[in-house]
Structures are given as C-alpha cells and as structure tokens.
Amino acid sequence: MLSGDEASAREHGTDSSFSLAGHMEQYVDETGQLTLTKALQPAIQSKFTHIAGHLNTGHIDHPVWLKATVRTEDGFPRHTILSIGPPSLERLRVYVQTGNDPSSPASYREYRLGADIPASQRTLLTPQFAVPLVLDNVRPTTILIRVEPGIAISLFATILTPEDLYGQTNMLLLLQGAYLGIILITALFSIFNFYRLNESPYLYFGLFVLCIFCFILSGEGILVLALPQQAHLVTEFIRRTAMALSFVFLALFGRSIQRARSHPFASRYLLFISILSGITALSAPFWLYKDLATASMIGALGMMMILIHISSILVMEREPGSKMYLAAFVIIQAGYVLQLLRHFGVVPLEWWSSNPMPFFFLLAIILISFALTERLRESRLAAEEMSIELRNNRDVLEKSLAVQENMGARKKRLIDMISHEYRTPIAIIRANIDIMMLNEASQSKEAASRFCKINRAIQRLVEIMDISLEESQHDDPRDTRNPQSMRIDEFLSQEYVAEITSRFNLSARMSESIGNHCIKADAAQLKTALFNLLDNAGKYSVPGSRILLECSVEQSWMVMRLRNRVEECFIREGDELFEQYRRGRNSTNTAGAGLGLWRVRRIVEHHHGRVAIERNTEEFIATLRIPVILTSE
C-alpha cells in the first residue's frame, strides 16, 4: 500500500486501520525554503530516503519532508482519515493528492495543522491532527507532509476509518478524563494537607502534580476540544512552562524530604536545578527555550539520581514511606531516560515510547501519595503520643502544684506560730535587760560590757527571725506590691532622707535633674531595697568613713548611687553578691544570711529596673536604676 515507489506499494486490504511506520520517505530541507512545487521536482524526489518506523530525527534545525503513496483495494472504504501525532507538533503542512498528476502542485490540496493553528480551522476537530482522505483502488494517492523544526522532530501517522477515529477519540477522552481527575484530586488533597499541617513536602508535591495536570491537559490535545478558538494561543506555552516547573517543584520536594541529612552537594544541586528549570519556564515564549529545555532535561537526569540517593538514605534510616519514595523516583528516572533517548533519536518512535511520561508520572504520583499518607499517619501517631505525654505531665504538674500549695500553707502556719511564740519571750527578755541596765547604770564597765553582749545576742535572734519572716513574705514579691505613680522628690522626702541620714553615717545629694519626674513603684518595697543597700554599705564600710547617696535622672532612668569605702579584699566582689545566700569574703564577723542584696535585685527587677555594682581601687559603688514614666506639670 505505502511506498515512495509506486511499483512496490502495498495495498490496503480489509483492515480498518494501518500504520505508516516503515512506509514513509524523508528529505531534510537544509535551506528551509523548499515549497511544494520544488519538492515535486524529480531532482528533489530522487533525494527522498526510506525511513524505518516513524519519523524520529531528534534535535534538528531544518524542516523535514515526508512522502507516502497510498492505494486501496475493493472492500475497504474509500473515505478514510489520516491521523497524525503527537498533538504537540507546533507546525506542519499536509498535501494530499486529489488530481491525477502526482507531479503537478495543482493536484494537491493543502491542510495547515499544528499546535499554533486555531483548531476551528481544522477540517476535523480531534485531539490528534486529522486529514480526510479519498482513496482510489486504481490511482495511488501521494501524501506529502512538511514538519517544521522543533525541540525534537517526531511524527507518527495512521490511516483509519471514521468509525475507528471516533471510537479512539472517545476512548482517549475517557482515559484522559479519568487520568486528569485522579491527579487533580491528588494535587488538591496534598495542598490541603499542607495548609492543615504546614509541612512543605505536601505543598511541593501538590504543585508538582498540578504541573503534570497542565502538561497532560495541553500536550494530549484535550485543551483543543475545550477551547477550539483560543487553545492554539496558550497550548504550547502551557506545555513548556508546566514541564519546566515540574522540575522546579520536584527538586524542591526532594530538598524538603532530605532534612539536610545527605551531603550538602545534593542540596546545592537540587537548588541549581530548580533555578535552571525556573529560568527555562520563564523563557518558554522565546527562542532560548529550546537550548534551555535540553539542558534542563539532561540536568533532570542528575536530579533524579540525587533524589534516588536521598531516598536510599531515608530507607536506611527507616523513614516512613521511604521505600515508596525510592520506587517513585526510580520510575520517574526510567521515564526521563526513555524520553531523552527518544528525544535524541536513539529509541525508535513506537506506541510505548511516543509519550511514556504520563504513565510513569501516574505510577510515581500514586507511590508518593502513599508515602505522604504514611508520613501523615506517623505524624498523627506521634501527635497522639505527645498528647498522652502532655496529659501525663499535666497530671504530674497538678499534683506537684497541689503539694507545693500544701507546703506553702504549712510553712505559713509555722512562721505565724514561730512569730508569735518566739517574739513574745524575746520581747520580755529585752524589756528586763533594759530595766536591769537602767538600775545598774552606775556599775562597772565589765557589767555594762556583759549587758551589751546580751543585747547583741538578742538582736541577733531578732534578726534571724526577721530574715525568716522576710524570706517567707518575699518568695514572690509580686504578691505584696502595689505600684503607684509618684514623684521622685516625694519618694525621697526631706523627712525620709533625714531618717536614713541619722541612722547611717550618710551624706545625700539630690540633683536638680530630678525636677518633677515621676516613677511607678511600690514605695515601701523600694525603700526596703534602698535600706538593704544602705545597711550593707554600713556593715562593710571602713570604720569612720561616710556613705554618699547620689540621686539624679539620667535619660529615662532615676539613678541612685551609693558610694562607700571598703576593705581592699571586698573590692574584688561584684554582681555575684546579688545571688541568694551569697555573702562577701569579709562577712564572717557581721550578721546576715546572704538575702539582703538578693531581695534588692528581685524588688528592682520587678519594677523593670536594674541594679549593679561598680568598684575601683578606693570605692564600692552600688547603682540602682528605676525607669521614669512621666513628667508632672
């Protein structure tokens, strides 16, 4: 029926369809200017060479002409259809002989087809390119096809009856509809899981599947049937962009599941492929796309090797779904290798190699979906275990808080009892000592010294009791404070300054910068902090030296500085003195429990202030800072 030589032409019998594979001749138009008139000249006709199978020249920059001669026998319908694919062919012209002279251009009818030709201008609207044929059992019919250059020139052609064409079209639409429905639901479900769980693998996988959806929708001719007037404007752009973006999101998906466990080279390579593929997607409308698309496809092979390596590591680490990741990446790699080999013309164009990627993608998508489902199940189990652990910890915490509250109540009762039972006899003893000292005021110095020792011992007992009470009251100083706004000059009133000056060997200096500035503080607590600082300064100052209190406003702080001279060994002490139960090196002969400065720091920090110790060779300086809140008018 088919041949370039009419004498050796095969005749079509009663079969309802026949493939042109192995029955076509080709001629490469290196000039790109060959027209039908020139192609029919004997000099050109003699240069047509027979090709085995379908047309699959790989990457070529020149148009290709194909020729086939068709003749039918009785018993086969004269009205048939020439079906040409794949639907991604950008531009082709089909010339069908309708006259008697095969060497005359006037004997041919031209059909303009291709992805960039409006579908409404086609003679038959089908996913594949279709041309009507009227065959004769006496006169052979010559068919010429001009295929424009593209990324890879591939073409298959089949002659079939209209009934077969319609049946194949309906079956194709049914299968493609089911295919697109499955992957669309998978994509939306994955993106929904991303918004629910906020885990990036679900997002990248969902976007990858959406790209496959767009690629199949545009590359298989389905979009032509849905939008016959507009499909030619966007089909090729969508197909190119979707394929490039699928590389982008697959690379990002691989980066998201590796969790930095593999070699850094893997992460950098995947990032490189995502950037290269992103640039390829942006170049889809321009001439640069052909070279970038080839580079991206080659780079995708390396990307799949990296993904297989990553999934192998996950398998060894027994990550949920890792075996399905590995199987999916191996399947995609096999599809890419097959497509690339066909792209370069190494693998012949057959039914199993014409468009293998949808099948491989479907298998991979199913496997990755199962892997992510397993990941989701493991996440739920981990969340349930964590919830159980949190409930157990909450129960333990509630019991601990109950025990602590009970201990706090018992401690308060003990302190109240001691305060009552302890202070009463101490007060009686002190009153009697005072009476004895008055009655025996004229006695010897030895008796007076004994009375002083007794008084110091009583004072020590009272001090221990005060420390215990104070520690109980200040375990949480926030429970007893009531901060209020007050002016600094009202806090440091003349009466209060006179009181502390008379009690301690103190000199006070109030800066004019105080003005009408205010602070928010609990006056009683803040005075306690200042008193503790003065008390410590009085205990450890060099005998006979005076304590200097300076008060000023610096920027937005009320600053109080206490300066006093101390022994050289004490100068080496610093902010560690504010630690609980911490006392200075020379404190062995002084009363105290290491709580005074600790309480100072707690009170000041609760007022959002700071307290620090500075020192030099002669002075020990304690600086207390409280924030100023406003200026009173």
TrEMBL record:
It holds the Pfam family 7TMR-DISM_7TM. GO terms for biological process: cellular response to phosphate starvation. SUPFAM superfamilies: ATPase domain of HSP90 chaperone/DNA topoisomerase II/histidine kinase, Homodimeric domain of signal transducing histidine kinase. Keywords: Kinase, Membrane, Phosphoprotein, Transferase, Transmembrane, Transmembrane helix, Two-component regulatory system. InterPro entries: 7TMR_DISM_rcpt_extracell_dom1, 7TMR_DISM_rcpt_extracell_dom2, BphY/WalK/GraS-like, HATPase_C_sf, HATPase_dom, His_kinase_dom, HisK_dim/P_dom, HisK_dim/P_sf. GO terms for molecular function: phosphoprotein phosphatase activity; phosphorelay sensor kinase activity. Its EC number is 2.7.13.3. CDD domains: HisKA. The chain crosses the membrane at residues 173-195, 202-225, 237-257, 269-289, 295-315, 324-344, 356-373. It catalyses: ATP + protein L-histidine = ADP + protein N-phospho-L-histidine. One of its GO terms (cellular component) is plasma membrane. Residues 1-20 are annotated as: Disordered. It comes from the Bacteria. Residues 417-630 form the Histidine kinase domain. This is histidine kinase. It comes from Chlorobium luteolum (strain DSM 273 / BCRC 81028 / 2530).
